[in-house]
């Protein structure tokens, strides 16, 4: 079992990167940040494609990089697997031969490489497409084959660079669910770069936020998104997240039960998350009686004007930060202010229920 340890610093004329973090075996670390924050630069350093000015990268006791000792293991000897936005499959090879390419390059016989390829095509739900060439695959199918190819090479570190960004709205949720199922069975550390906070919610155990080349926040995913310390992270989250334990048709968070649309089937008592937008939340003085909707008791922390709406920030179950977007007229009619206790009410149809990798702390 190998953990990844990174402490690097890189300076260019108009950009600097400083990152210090670790990823445990089997853990998924999501790296989020705006364009130009340094996410791609960080992946290039991990892959050995870019030499930092100072620092070290170590995986499972093996030093990949140590600028003081002038150690810099080349990319092909690091054992890094990459799944990028585009599948980048070899167009002249079948899906099966694309997946078998890694094992063959590592010295496996053709028959053994094909056995490995068959296993990973089955793991990624495209076993019946092994004989097709990339031109005959949809975007979602090609990305599944690309994931199988990355894993078949038995990488020591898996890097996912915006793996869902190029998929359409129908293919992305299915691929996200597949990644969740596959990644939680892996023992290697995984670094996921994404712009989509939902990817972090569903896939990542921990979250690292980069801004202007600096790590501004890092920690368990639910904790960082529910209690952001930086304005950027709060904007990045943009969604309400309640984590807890899955039940039939919803998630139990402390004493509260949140019902919604189950996006990916989960087993009972598995860590799950309820995700909903601030615009989906209605604010009430009293709990609606006889309503089938979700109702959460909260304490208002702040009222923030945002154009034609007011963002009502509040503290919900287990101290979780929650937000509602309501009209100024609604705020005036309710007569609410910071410190008061109210109810956040959300229709079940507006809540997406996902498995989560970050545990069920409800934070």
Automatic annotation (TrEMBL):
Domain Mop stretches: 289-355
Short name of one Pfam family: TOBE
Keyword Nucleotidyltransferase: no
GO process terms (BP): molybdate ion transport
Residue stretches making up the ABC transporter domain: 1-237
SUPFAM superfamilies assigned to the protein according to its UniProt record, in alphabetical order: MOP-like, P-loop containing nucleoside triphosphate hydrolases
Keyword Transport: yes
Protein name: Molybdate transport system ATP-binding protein
Species in which this protein is naturally found: Saccharopolyspora dendranthemae
